Amino acid sequence: MRKAILGLGILVLCGALGFLALTSPSAYRMLRAQASPAPTDHKPNPDNGRVMFFAGGCTSCHATPNQDDKLRLGGGFALKSPFGTFHVPNISPHKQDGIGSWSTADFIRAMHEGTSPEGHNYYPAFPYTSYQRMRLEDLADLFAFLQTLPAVDGKAPPHDLPFPYSIRRGVGLWKLAFLDGKPFTPNPSKSESWNRGAYLVNGPGHCAECHSERNFAGAIIEERRFAGGPDPEGGRGSVPNITPSPSGIGGWTEDELVTLLTTGETPNFDTVGGPMGSVVHNTAQLPESDRRAIAEYLLSLPPKQGYAAPKS
Prior knowledge:
The protein is built from 12 helices and 4 strands, in the order ααααββαααααββααα. With 312 residues, the chain is mainly α. A two-stranded antiparallel ribbon has the order 1-2. Strands 3-4 form a two-stranded antiparallel sheet. A hairpin with a 2-residue loop joins strand 1 and strand 2. The longest helix has 21 residues.
């Protein structure tokens, strides 16, 4: 009996040590992270950072709610999900409450690895599975632009998540399973504008994060990427298919898609609203060449049947 208890104790201890090792951000860094944590010979360009800022729609989630200045990034927005409610953090350059004390390397690690400067895992409601595709130089530029914005007092409330999602350490296992650490790789057989569109859509734009179905763990189902999905906030609605299928944007011209990204108007004289209205507010700030590159890329995707909501 004593041997059995001892054996069980050893198994529990080994399990606990294994969990701590595999869920550590250090484990992810050793197994998946990119080799270069920060560019050392790059002079940050805030103007390009502004383009990355609006391509990424940072203000959509991080702007302080209930005020008009969308460049005051005090956070606090409550992002509902099937796993609980996340409260979006302050990313203004406030030294104590925001990211004003971060280094460029801290910011790049957060965006690429989902790890805080203190060494904690970020929940993947922060879409670093897309941001990991961003170039180091663009991230350095984005960080430089963020430092030009107003510092905002106050921290967001803590996340409201039930057990077991409340165990932040467990996100380390999620990252090992679903964060591949691969940067964006241009396709040499495609045009420069197509590659620009692919980069903007899959990197800073993180379009697939809303326009895709997810598996039981909340990770994008690759074969359903861009084909639409259920409301990510758990509502009864759904997010549209953005592949050129008859159930998506099939039949749209590049000009029509550029118009949508500029004004929110669809080819059938409707106007997008809700979260997509906020997305259009951001894409309208981009150079037209970038909106056209996004349209070129999206219209080149393989058509996929759109998401069919379960019948109630």
